[in-house]
Amino acid sequence: MEGFELHDKFAAGSQGEVWEAFRVNSQGEKERFVLKRVLLERDASFALAGQREAVFGERLQDRPEVARFVEAFNFTEESVSFTNEAQSRVGFWLVFRHEGESLDALLYSRIEASKVVLLEPSEFWHRMRRDALGAQVRREILRQVCEGLVALAEENVAHRDIKPSNLLLSELDNSPSAKSWPFRVKLADFGSALDTEDGPLNARLYGAAGPTMHEETRWYRPPEAFLAAETSQRFPYMGNDLNGVEDASRPLPYHAFDMWSLGVVALEMLLGTAHIFQISDRQRARLRAKLTQVSYLYSSPQAFEAALESRCAFAALQDFGIGPPPSTSDGHLDSAHDAAAAAAGKGSNRTKFRAMVRERDPLKTGFYFAHAGEFDSVEEMELYGDDELDFVWWLLQWSPFDRPTPEQALRHPFFGHFT
């Protein structure tokens, strides 16, 4: 690889740097790329994450639903010639085509104050919530992500880190039509991905410890991830039993993690914040005090903190009506009465979920009111709003076995509107 001209470094973190770069092709045209440098010197796990991006990037190279991977290389002064600033940047680099803005960059405005970056809902978010076509934009983003997850399943890949910063929107137009959408959503960043069929490959790409929740982003993890952390078990996709998850004798479905994360993204587009499942400082203090009474049960301060985080996450989910169903003492529904109680509980929980989402809505307008002109009747308008929340509720089922596959999700009535 030669001749890259590095421009802006638009992201940096503990694992590496992300640069915008240009290179002139054989026709004399200037092409735009994204270059990611993996900081190998900091942690061996970063090198494995870089290898995962390269392996899955190459496998998915021809899928239009995925950010286009070009190649990976080790940079030395002898092997690569950059046109500026990179002579001190020896390391492992990943090269991708530039695919547009991330959904994260579109949803939030960044305000720097006293060396702290504050995120506020952006003008794009307000348009998506208030404009006549905003509901359709939300629906189209979710539809294209589901199609991307179908493509991953066809290639035996689970992403495991679906979030707005890993969803790229290209050629976004301010006034898309309902029939022809001038933007494409592409899935990016496969540093947490795994192969759903090839155990030896996963062992090579993750090492002896296997995949853990530490490769994912905190706010987008499903309940089974934080339960696995508290019980000190290996990541549930590796086939171990998992306390607290219905029917732990079955291996967890690979799609379940990504569908939960997509549900959080859907709520984020509605509510304008990533910190959806949070409790108050007072609630957290009460849980800490209660857990301190049995602190002798935990082998270390780290184990205690992991248990506290799990309880805080569980409490936040319960605020939205998300939690395990009523069951008998052995954890199974063993009578018609139990099954009826569980069904009734799910119905009341769905009502609680809808009420909480509307309560958390910063605009207090409802999710279809601003789009009344797009419907033939009030009944159709209300049905659309109910379908959207019903779809999100389906993605956020407590049991991973109750969450839809991407194919099932695409058949939901929510995607039947505006076609």
UniProtKB/TrEMBL annotation:
<keyword id="KW-0418">Kinase</keyword>
<feature type="region of interest" description="Disordered">
    <location>
        <begin position="326"/>
        <end position="345"/>
    </location>
</feature>
<dbReference type="InterPro" id="IPR050117">
    <property type="entry name" value="MAPK"/>
</dbReference>
<dbReference type="InterPro" id="IPR011009">
    <property type="entry name" value="Kinase-like_dom_sf"/>
</dbReference>
<dbReference type="InterPro" id="IPR008271">
    <property type="entry name" value="Ser/Thr_kinase_AS"/>
</dbReference>
<dbReference type="InterPro" id="IPR000719">
    <property type="entry name" value="Prot_kinase_dom"/>
</dbReference>
<dbReference type="GO" id="GO:0004672">
    <property type="term" value="F:protein kinase activity"/>
</dbReference>
<keyword id="KW-0547">Nucleotide-binding</keyword>
<feature type="domain" description="Protein kinase">
    <location>
        <begin position="4"/>
        <end position="415"/>
    </location>
</feature>
<protein>
    <submittedName>
        <fullName>Protein kinase, putative</fullName>
    </submittedName>
</protein>
<keyword id="KW-0808">Transferase</keyword>
<keyword id="KW-0067">ATP-binding</keyword>
<dbReference type="GO" id="GO:0005524">
    <property type="term" value="F:ATP binding"/>
</dbReference>
<dbReference type="Pfam" id="PF00069">
    <property type="entry name" value="Pkinase"/>
</dbReference>
